[in-house]
Amino acid sequence: MKNQISKCIYILALLFLFGAESVNVQAAEDDREFDYIRGGPKGPENWGNLKPEWAACKNGRMQSPIDLSLPTVRFMSQPERTTYKPFNATLENSGHDIEVQWKGDAGSRFINGTEYRLRAVHWHNPAEHTINGIRYDLELHMVHQSPDVNVQNRTAVVGVLYQIGRPDPFLSMLNASISSVIDKKGAEVNLGVINPNDIQSESPSYYRYMGSLATPPCTEGVIWTVNTKVKTVSRSQINLLREAVLFYAEENARPLQARNNRDIILYFSRF
């Protein structure tokens, strides 16, 4: 009798544990607006069906990311000016990515004379854009917005590509903060003063094209700049980014989108 009671208690304990895990998984599934599970009901192929305001994800003609191949080559008359500077920032786990957000003036990038202020950076693994069919291991997006409401294209994103190698110094600075928000969707950590120049985002050449946000609502009219200079990141740093987000975004790269005859310009500095 004693053995039978012990066996029953053991079975009930297992059911409780697995039941609790199922509830947690189900809650995470129900809570997310979209995910990166290919072929799933909330995966990239279905983003445009989830909300009417996300229709551009399926109907848009200038979607991102794309393969950056067969560009038109031009020389820069002068490198684009940046005025990045340190300011207070926070780190947030959105569930589908890890993002650093500046809480004030962290400087700007000037594109064709228009100011675009730096707002945030986040990471995608593997990289979203490809270059001549080559996909790199990680891509950082520096999101900028123009303060001028009359500018036609108010959002500009700079993409920085990484391949496996030496650790990235900027990510190394954030290691403890990222570790503290693992699996904690919505968690936010105060980072203090963060200098965007530590990203070392300058490149002697870059691709430029008109695209969209790479996550819902996939808004078009985004000016994309993707650096040709490829930086390095360690395997453990990528693994930490994967571990920190929720299970449905461990690989959070949107599939490549159709080019649709868009111009891709490869700009080189003239030495």
From TrEMBL:
GO BP: any one term: one-carbon metabolic process
Domain Alpha-carbonic anhydrase: 32-268
Key words of the record: Signal
Molecular functions per Gene Ontology: carbonate dehydratase activity; zinc ion binding
Cross-referenced Gene3D superfamilies: Alpha carbonic anhydrase (3.10.200.10)
PROSITE patterns in the cross-refs: ALPHA_CA_2
Signal sequence, renumbered to the chain: 1-27
Pfam family, one: Carb_anhydrase
Coiled-coil positions: none
Protein name, UniProt field: Alpha-carbonic anhydrase domain-containing protein
